[in-house]
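Students often ask why we bother encoding 3D structure as a string. The short answer is that it lets us treat folding as translation between two languages. Here is a chain of 212 residues written in the first language.
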Amino acid sequence: MLRFLLTRIASAIPVLAILSLVTFAIIQAPPGDYADYIRSQLINQGGASFAEADAQAKAYRIEHGLDKPLPVQYLNWIGGIVTRGDFGYSLYYNKPVADVVGERLPRTLLLALVCHLLASVLGITFGIWAATRQYSWIDSTLSAISFLGMTVPRFLMALIIVYLLVFQFNVSEIGSFFSPQYGGAPWSWAKFVDLVKHVWPVVAIATFGGLA
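And here it is in the second language, the structure alphabet:
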């Protein structure tokens, strides 16, 4: 068992290395960087002159290592992850990436656990039901449902559900866990019901995809 685990871990290392290279290349593919965005914001919204905005953009680029060659930036990023567990700095949220992930990880794990339990309970139940009625319409229907859940991309199902909610049912609160009045409120039954109303599409898509 130990040998199997070590083999699996060792085989994952080159895959992670390739993924990191692809991710870094995609991020760097668009022209410019975040310092250019800061410069344009200072000029367009802050009323700064080009020289002042460019000076602040250069200072930001030097502070965050964006002035270095791309191979050096990549090695610094990977070296920080491997040696210090430092995944870098989020330019969008203006905080370390580890903090951004840490804020969302508990909710993500809880959501994944709920989806896994639902998919397991429903999948096993449907499997027993179909097996005891082999070649019947129930067996065929449940087999088709599980086949669709396994083959249809989840992002496509998500797009379809979002389209139906927004354009057919006029739902405006998309992408949040709670309604505005429950955002900072203490937990209550009403807040839990509001949470279910917001997350059911995610749970449904993940559960449907795991039924097979």
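Translate back mentally: Strands lie at 89-90, 95-96. Keep this in mind for the problem set.
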